[in-house]
Structures are given as C-alpha cells and as structure tokens.
Write a structure and sequence with these properties.
Length: 185
C-alpha cells in the first residue's frame, strides 16, 4: 500500500493546509468540513471493517458515501440541507485529492457524481404596513426597556438587518437609549 493510498494524510492536508492556508475559509466552514469528516470516517471504517488509520482513499467509495448520506437522514434525522452540506465537504476533499494525485481522478469523479438533493426553500415573508405598525407600537416607550425595544425594532426595520446581526448592535442601542432617557429625565 503506497502512502498516497492512505486517506489519513490526505484528510490532514485537506483540513490543515488546504482549507486554512490555501482557501482561507472561515472558521465555521473549516469546522463544518472537519465535523463532516469526523462523522464520515468512523462510518466508512465500520462499513469497510478496517481501523480508521488504515482506510485508503478507495475505501471511501460512492456506495459507502451514499449509505452514509442515507444514514444521516434516517438515523441521525438530519435535514436535507445538512446532508447536502456534508456532501459538499466530501466533494471538496475529493477535488483536493484529485488535483494532487492523478491516480485518484476516477475516484473523484465517482464521488463528485453523487448529486445534491433538492429541497423546498422557505419563502421569505415580509410584514405588511399595518403589521409593522402594530409591532412598532407594542413596546411601552415610557419604560427604559420599552424605549430600547422600540429603538431596536426601528433599527431592524430601517436597516433591513437580520436579528442575528442586530444582536451585536443591541448593546450600542441600549447605550443610546440610556443616554436618551437620561437626557429627558
């Protein structure tokens, strides 16, 4: 067995060199890819009845990957989006290996031929003017918390920010509300 046949060194280079140094992907993407492989490798090890450190690239066949993806959906109750995210990580690793090892190009083609599953996207719905007016009127602006909530809602409405983005701005808004209430007290 040649060194290039073992999967372990490829996984190490993919996670440490390629994702971080070459692609400079975000920490969340790096962790997502790592977690995908942390789920896949023990599964492939059990399927092939080999220890993880003795797995070869070819042990990660299209059939093993297909069964792994089914396992994610049926036994781990992952959504189709999560399944597709795990598949994207494996596709990226397969592309990485095939670009550096010509003997694995056919294997890469087999792995990358596994399609993503289609899913229905949740349609974003927006509040109508009367609904937005009712939401803005809900906080009691006579209290500090009500003033803060009203300011936060106005910020979200006027900026089009997501709630997660506004979470970071909440302390700044609270400071502004506190300054405003001190001015009018």
């Amino acid at each position: 067995m040649s060194k290039s046949a073992l999967l372990g060194p490829w996984v190490k280079r993919f996670l440490l060199d390629h994702l971080i140094t070459e692609r400079n992907l975000s920490r969340n993407t790096q962790r997502s890819y790592r977690d995908s492989l942390a789920l896949l490798l023990p599964y492939a090890s059990a399927q092939n009845k080999k220890p993880i450190d003795q797995l070869e690239v070819f042990h990660l066949s299209g059939d093993v990957l297909r069964r792994f993806l089914d396992h994610l959906e049926q036994h781990r109750r992952c959504s189709i989006r999560t399944r597709n995210q795990r598949l994207a990580a494996v596709h990226a690793m397969a592309r990485f290996i095939s670009e550096r090892s010509p003997e694995h190009i056919a294997w890469c083609g087999q792995i990358r031929s596994l399609p993503f599953k289609r899913f229905t996207r949740n349609e974003l719905s927006y509040l109508d003017k009367p609904e937005m007016d009712a939401l803005l009127a809900a906080p009691d602006r006579r209290t500090k918390q009500g003033m803060r909530d009203h300011a936060l809602l106005l910020f979200l409405y006027n900026s089009g920010a997501r709630v997660t983005e506004a979470h970071r701005s909440r302390s700044a808004i609270s400071t502004c509300v506190a300054a405003r209430s001190a001015t009018f007290s």
